[in-house]
Design goal:
Oligomer: single chain
Number of strands: 0
Radius of gyration: 30 Å
Number of helices: 5
Structural class: mainly alpha
């Protein structure tokens, strides 16, 4: 199970990295996630996520039972210590897996929102241009001087472009800041995860060494 959890975590990390950087792979990842979120995809994802969450709760309960047995003053059993370390590793991996899944879903949602915003801005520019052309024709019909019409057109065009560019820049900065925050948070969790794995491996090694020593003593006795 641990190998499967590691595989899924690395896949999720690869998808998140592909979404953070503008590469040809990013388009295929977005298309794939769009298809996953259609039809029965959300139901399947929720089912798998719920199953992982239930297994996580079961693992935490097993850890609590082992900790309760140790706190009651019983003898330290090397087998219980090994099981405790294994449960801690599995719980950490499952929690990190669920967190990466949530972050992947939110990042995909923000990228889609950003694309819709860009399309809206482009549509607004086209409508503004069409409106200016209509006003230009109407002004010519009313025999308005050509210089006044040209000046009004330039003024409106400059104002609309300035507002659209300002709004677009603000939304892009907000999206980039959010993506950077998610990336930094992911890196922090990855470092904590690697540190936890190293600590758990060291504990397992020490416990196995202790178990070997105890077995050797029993053998000599």
């Amino acid at each position: 199970m641990i190998q499967l959890l590691f595989t899924v975590i690395f896949v999720e990390m690869g998808l998140i990295v592909a979404l953070l950087f503008k590469t040809p792979l990013r388009r295929f990842v977005i298309i794939g996630l769009d298809r996953v979120k259609r039809g029965r995809g959300p139901v399947m994802v929720k089912t798998v996520g719920g199953t992982v969450f239930v297994v996580l709760l079961s693992t935490l309960q097993g850890m609590a039972v082992i900790q309760e047995n140790l706190s009651e003053g019983g003898l330290v059993n090397p087998t219980d210590q090994v099981l405790m370390a294994r449960h801690m590793l599995e719980a950490s991996l499952m929690g990190f897996l669920l967190f990466l899944a949530l972050m992947l879903d939110r990042l995909h949602h923000y990228i889609r929102e950003l694309r819709l915003l860009r399309k809206t801005i482009e549509t607004g520019k086209k409508q503004a241009s069409s409106f200016e052309d209509t006003r230009h024709v109407s002004s010519n019909d009313k025999n308005v001087p050509a210089e006044d019409v040209s000046a009004l057109k330039r003024k409106m065009k400059h104002q609309l472009e300035s507002e659209c560019d300002t709004y677009k820049a603000e939304e892009l900065r907000a999206a980039e800041a959010n993506a950077e925050a998610l990336n930094a948070q992911s890196e922090g969790f990855l470092e904590d995860h690697n540190q936890l794995i190293m600590e758990n491996n060291q504990k397992l090694w020490n416990q196995l060494h202790l178990y070997d020593q105890i077995s050797s003593l029993h053998h000599y006795e």
